[in-house]
Amino acid sequence: MIKSGSFSCAGKQHGLLSERNEDVVLERDCGTHRVIVLCDGAGSCANGKAAAWLTADTLAEFLSVRFARFLLENAEVLRLEVVNLITEVLTDAAQKAGADPGSFGCTVMAAAMDQQGRWCLFHLGDGTAVGKLYPGSDWLVFSYPQRGLLPGATTLTMNGSMFDNLRFYRHDYPSDRSLFLMSDGAMELLRRVPRLLEKMELGLALPEPENMSEDDCSAAWLIARQKS
Predict the structure, then answer these.
(1) What's the 3-state SS for 76-91?
(2) CA-CA distance, 128 to 126, in Å (whole number)?
(3) Residues 6 or more apart in contact with residue 52 via CB below 8 angstroms
(4) pLDDT digits (tens, 9 = 90+) for 9-62
């Protein structure tokens, strides 16, 4: 059994208006596995929201179709393939718009998990990944936000070397597992993760949280259980 879920709401810097939310969260149900992607369009980039949409859609499709490869093949080869794919998509968009490719900046968190609890995750830039990665284990923060060279900066697509900064995690053996991905604006939810996922496992609806953060607040999760 595998479940997924997500939410996203605008931060105070965007007037709490959903149409100004620069986070993009996508879910895909692929039958034997599910995909979640969370990309945060950089406010410092003129085309950050467009970059987030393009990157999220590209990675959601890529992980939907080729998930099995990410459990088995060489990690460095896979990272390079993802970097080249994102670069190609965003460079093409910049050319069509007559814009600087560097203006298409966003962060990346993209994960997939199958019914057996096998999973993979790509992470670039801001955001935090927590998980219960082993049966009976406590929640563990296993991927922290990346910081850029300047104060308050982070690593983005089309900003520096994506290959050097793109993180890749995976477990290729079956087990009960839970993953929870959060944008920077959702950090105050960290202490609530167990309670949120407990509700999800019980099939209870999760109300969209009241966002008191300056940043947009988004999260997505995957839960796999060997026995339904």
Answers:
(1) HHHHHHHHHHHHHHHH
(2) 7
(3) 22, 23, 24, 39, 40, 41, 106
(4) 765 554 444 555 678 999 999 999 999 999 998 888 999 999 999 999 999 999
Q: What is the number of other CB atoms lying within 10 angstroms of the CB of residue 164?
A: 9
pTM above 0.85, yes or no: yes
Look up residue 140 and give its two tokens: 């563990």
Which strand ranges, in their side-by-side order, compose the sheet holding 108-114? 23-29, 33-40, 108-114, 119-124, 167-171
Q: Which residues of 178-217 are buried (b: 16+ CB within 10 A; e: fewer)?
A: bbbbbbbbbbebeeebeebbeebeeeeeeeebebebebbb
Q: In the block, which residue shows the tokens 């890749």?
A: 168
Amino acid type, 81: E
Cα–Cα dist 51/44, whole Å: 12
Q: Per-residue confidence at 136, pLDDT binned at 50, 70, 90?
A: confident
**Strand locations in the chain (E):** 2-9, 23-29, 33-40, 108-114, 119-124, 128-132, 140-143, 167-171, 177-182, 217-224
